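Tutorial handout. Part one gives the primary structure; part two gives the three-dimensional structure as tokens.
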Amino acid sequence: MNTRRFTVMALGSLVASLLVSGAAWAHADAAHVKVENAWARASVAGQQASGAFMRLTAQEPLKLVGVETTAAAVAEVHEMKMEGDVMRMRAIEALDLPQGVAVDLKPGGYHLMLQQLKAPLVKDSQVPVTLVFKDAKGTLSRLSLQLPVRATAPAAAGAGNQHMGHGGHQH
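Part two.
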């Protein structure tokens, strides 16, 4: 019994230290995905939406096909792109994650959109998010994360990550 408790505590400490460092390897059923610089943008009272961001590196070809969270009534994978001189944001059905290629989910590009927030996302708290992947055989797998909530992008995510108006996004 004590050995089991120690093993669980040691595993919990390892997972916590990986999450705090901003990088985590996870085995989600058959999907191996490295997650780096994961975070969600803090919101204010009355704000109905916010974004979540990270870098994903798949160890096999995958598609990010969904996102789930208890923090919002609607959670989707979105893209922002210029169409002419207008920035457009829309939900996408899937985001390709080529094997070994880092794919950034960042402000102004691909990101997770959390809409109809059930409560404000408070700075220095965490928000639970589950990513849903599909492999080449069509098998689904899930990866559950606790994203730190920040007011601004972490420095490691690079300069120039400016907020692109996620809070005011409406469908």
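Part three, for discussion. Helices lie at 2-20. The longest strand covers residues 72-83.
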